[in-house]
């Protein structure tokens, strides 16, 4: 009975009546019980039987030209990145192979190959993404306007516990820094922020202050660095460091409100599920390598649904779009003022 119950109407759609009836007889089921077990309408079963007795040819399999030309590429990408679903695989095919693949087509190919992610995995990822939507009432859409920072810790297979202090740009989802350390003090937090500042300037090819300065007014718009209320972020030494940096303004979230720091929490969920929990690092050295490798994958390879399939590095380096002017727009006249002769 178990193999019959695992069958589905979608999987049996291309079967002829002889195969269907053989499966029913094999499990000793009535027509009603068989159709209920596999989710096949009884009318479809009886129609197939009538066609079979009349000598009609079995239907299908139908041609699938949209899938045939790209199946090898899609399966190869899915095997290379088994932690990603069909949407990311479809976007990745566009980035790496120049293919425009419909998400539904990609899903069908992966389903045929048995490479669709389990339902529980997808549900967990969506739950983690829920915090992202609650991060801010007015979301930032430009780079270097809001950065989020937090630590996560991991016990390695060798028994030690190591931390990674990550800094991420809210709008572009670019992870700017994430050094692995054995402690979580204000010194570690300062080192992470400094690495993020240096990395931002390196990517932009100019001082970060220049990107934050209005070219017309010369006014500096500092980056809001959002953290939780951990001891390292409440330390006076960390506050003095932030005060010495004109690029930054520190904001701490409300107590017991991790969803306010949703983007960095989302990144921590991704790196654990897609990398670290799949094969625990043995020690801090191996964890450093794995974190660095995933940061490169996350920034430069992994398509992001929030970014419409783009990669964070591409969005971060794109020139920001100027906001629309607040000047009132004079409407065009709609009434005829000149008499037509």
Verbal overview:
- By secondary structure, this protein is α/β, with parallel strands linked by helices.
- The chain has 3 domains: 10-54; 67-113; 137-317, 2-Layer Sandwich (Nucleotidyltransferase, domain 5).
- Helices cover 48% and strands 10% of the residues.
- The chain has 17 helices and 6 strands.
- Strand 1 (146-155) and strand 2 (161-169) form a beta hairpin.
- The chain is elongated.
- The N and C termini lie far apart (88 Å).
Entry summary:
The protein is α/β, with parallel strands linked by helices and 341 residues long.
What is the number of domains?
3
Residue-averaged pLDDT, rounded? 82
Major sheet details = 6 strands, mixed
Specify Rg, calculated over alpha carbons.
Answer: 28 Å
Task: Tell me the fraction of residues in β-strands, as a range.
Answer: 5-15%
CATH fold category name of the largest domain:
Nucleotidyltransferase, domain 5
The CATH architecture name of the largest domain reads 2-Layer Sandwich
Distance between the termini: 88 Å
The top level CATH class name of the largest domain = Alpha Beta
Low-confidence stretches: 1-10, 128-137, 334-341
Characteristics:
Nucleotidyltransferase, domain 5; disordered C terminus; 3 domains; six-stranded mixed sheet; 48% helix; 341 residues; alpha/beta; 10% strand; disordered N terminus
Spell out the blueprint of helices and strands.
Layout: H1 2-6, H2 9-12, H3 17-26, H4 31-38, H5 42-53, H6 65-68, H7 71-80, H8 86-97, H9 103-112, H10 119-133, E1 146-155, E2 161-169, E3 175-177, E4 180-181, H11 186-204, H12 208-212, E5 223-227, H13 231-234, H14 236-243, E6 248-252, H15 262-276, H16 284-301, H17 312-317
Parallel strand pairs: 1-5, 5-6
Antiparallel strand pairs: 1-2, 2-3, 2-4
Helix pairs in contact: 7-8, 8-9, 10-15
